[in-house]
Design goal:
Layout: H1 20-30, H2 38-41, E1 51-58, H3 62-75, E2 79-86, H4 88-96, E3 104-107, H5 110-118, E4 122-133, E5 135-140, E6 161-164, H6 170-181, H7 185-188, E7 192-195, H8 198-206, E8 212-216, H9 217-221, E9 236-241, E10 250-257, H10 263-273, H11 276-284
Helix pairs in contact: 3-11, 4-5
Amino acid sequence: MCVRGYEEEAVRRVMIAIAPAVLGLALVLGGCGQKPSGQEQAPAERAANAVKLEVMVPCGQVGPVSQIIKAFQAANPGIEVAWVPENMVTITRKILDRKSEPDVTLSMGDLEMDLLQQAGMLADGARTKIAENSLCIMVPAGNPAGLQTIQDLAKPAVKTIAIPDPKENSVGVHAIEALKKAGIWDKVEGKVLFSKFAADSKDVTAKGQAEASIGYYPCAVEVHIPGQPPAKPKNIILQAQVPAALYPAFWCEAAVLKAAKQPAEAKKFVEFLGTPESRKVFLEWQFIADLAKQPPSSG
């Protein structure tokens, strides 16, 4: 379980409304602009009786996971992976509300899996860490506030700091932990603008409506454009990584759901996500994937 050390009564929660066209663009850059399926990616010769595996993939993992799925299907021609890219918050909500019952779900961090585990949605022992995630500070093009380090967020020039809602986003939980451990939470708390989705915080900053945002490092340095290798984000600058000592290590995770229709194949896919081959792909997309270090058990 991750620590949620923030006081709700002290948090100014402002939800950001993004115009549909802008949100659509953000989803394309994050990998959610198109809805690929296993049928679209499966080779023509795939067996007609192949087992169909349903997987929910966060936008921030579309790049690496789409490559991994191709490798998995090549190694397992009897399994067809039908995958759907969605915003991380949307995935969690759909599963909790039983509007979606995939065989496997992936997460950007620990909070989302904690919520599903607490609700009894995950199969026993099926929660697996697949790639370590990390935090960074992003600023608009030109860095108008002149930020260099996390301590600079307390400067008067910084009026607004965009952070994803810590009730639904791992990045929000760990961003607040980092600000507290850095000793500046009391100075920046009133500047924080919480957004429902991680992509919203990034978008607000790119448009210059916030002097900085805290987000996932991989999303700040690489974006997914369908059919292309990792590309650099536009209109936003990775200014600094949040020092790892300021927040607990957290991982992108995969889990088999209790409602899985294909539990054996689901377990096989989750295990494949943790192989050296898959971890090399995550490394290409700027996740932390030390091949010499075995991920700790998720429980």
